[in-house]
Amino acid sequence: MKDMTEQNVIKSTSLLTIEHLNISFTQYESGIHRRVLSVIQDLNVQIHTGELVAIVGSSGSGKSLLAHAVLDILPYNASMEGKLNYCGMPLTKDRIRRLRGSEIVLVPQSIGCLDPLMKIGPQLVKGRKDAASKRCMSSILHYLGLEEELSDAYPFELSGGMNRRVLIGTALAEQPKLVIADEPTPGLDPAIADRVIKYFRDMADQGIGVLLITHDLELALRAADRIVVFYAGNTVEEALPEDFRNESSLRHPYTKALWRAMPQNGFQPLAGTQPYVRDLKEGCPFADRCSMYTEACSQKIPYRALRSGYVRCLYAE
Ligand SMILES: Nc1ncnc2c1ncn2[C@@H]1O[C@H](COP(=O)(O)OP(=O)(O)OP(=O)(O)O)[C@@H](O)[C@H]1O
Ligand SMILES: [Mg+2]
Predict the structure, then answer these.
(1) Do the beta carbons of residue 236 and residue 256 sit within 8 Å?
(2) pTM
(3) Residue 12: its pLDDT value, please?
(4) Quick check: 285 and 234 in contact, CB under 8 A?
(5) Rounded to an integer, what distance in angstroms lies between the CA atom of residue 185 and that of residue 193?
(6) CA-CA distances (angstroms) from residue 71 to 34, 105, 152?
(7) Containing domain of residue 254, as a range?
(8) What is the β-pairing status of strands 309-311 and 234-239?
């Protein structure tokens, strides 16, 4: 465990800043009608060294696209605007190409990202054969509860949960400054999931920045320093984990609805669904489901500081 003063110093350094990120896709209907689909609007996220920031939000809210934008691996028909700074300098295409896979590491959401033709062991350490890499490979397998013999197996010989652990292992084998873990725990045994999250927490305590993308709010609350909530391609709130102790400490009506849906708060579902990007209107994306809606909400809503966090709602206080 590090000395608190040292931790505070580590946490004060900005590692990655994402400001006003917009992502859109160009699509063609019937092969001729060109349409631009705006899927991420004015997204803001910041992460410091030694910090674990969790991004939560429902399916389709833009969590993976954010990760792919940072890594510069968006699909060919996507275009992106906004400011990405890494260690105080713009994260240009050249820079991310050099840092990707070593200093900035992604644990992808899909186990389909594993190479089907490469055995598990070499895949964990990117084919390195030196003694240190072999030791590293064994300790990762052991840490993730996988038998050593599995290093000789191919991904198709493993279960989904085992392959997910291998994906996580590929990040553990590097010595990154920034880890982006996109839904690392679905399908894992709860004890292993807990261990994985503790490992990411340990990484952050050692000075690494960890961006943990998850559907699982409870899991995020156990490990994160800050929680950023996405809704329909927007950042709607940034909160501290302790804000989730009471509904009244939260800021955005969507975050409050997430809070009410937690088992310990009565499992109260929220009526309606997140709008699909094609159906989004100008203004607040949560308008259709919000009891505080007024006409003023159909304007562009600013992301503003409120207490120790941020919110994108005119009426939050
Ligand atoms: N290549 C693409 N072309 C058009 N739209 C896309 C493309 N890729 C993603 N989208 C849309 O962008 C939105 C955000 O997708 P994204 O994969 O980031 O969601 P997510 O929050 O990661 O969801 P999940 O929790 O299911 O992983 C979705 O509405 C999705 O349909
Ligand atoms: Mg995703």
Answers:
(1) no
(2) 0.91
(3) 62
(4) yes
(5) 5
(6) 27, 9, 30
(7) 4-103+177-190+210-309
(8) antiparallel
Residue 47: partners with Cβ closer than 8 Å, 6 or more residues away: 14, 15, 16, 17, 53, 178, 209, 210, 211
* 201 is a domain residue: no
pLDDT of residue 299: 94
Classify residue 170: in a domain, yes or no: no
Inter-helix orientation angle 160-172/131-143, to 10°: 130
Instruction: Confirm or reject: Cβ of 220 under 6 Å from ligand 1.
Output: no
- Count structural domains, the chain: 1
Q: Residue 68 CA: which ligand is closest?
A: 1
Binding site membership of 74 for ligand 1 (Cβ less than 6 Å):
no
Is residue 137 included in any domain, yes or no? no
**Nearest residue CA, atom 16 of ligand 1?**
62
For ligand 1, the distance from its centroid to the CA atom of residue 286, given in whole angstroms, is 18
Q: Which residues surround ligand 2, an ion (CB under 5 A)?
A: 63-64, 109
Residue 175 near ligand 1, beta carbon < 6 Å = no
pLDDT, tens digit (0-9, with 9 covering 90-100), for 238-281: 999 999 999 999 999 999 999 999 999 999 999 999 998 888 88
- Tell me the pLDDT tens digit for each residue of 152-174: 999 999 999 899 999 999 888 88
Instruction: Report CA 82 to chain centroid distance, whole Å.
Output: 18
Q: Find the CATH number of the domain harbouring 276.
A: 3.40.50.300
- Ligand positioned closest to the Cα atom of 277: 1
Q: Does 155 reside within a domain?
A: no
Amino acid in position 210 = V
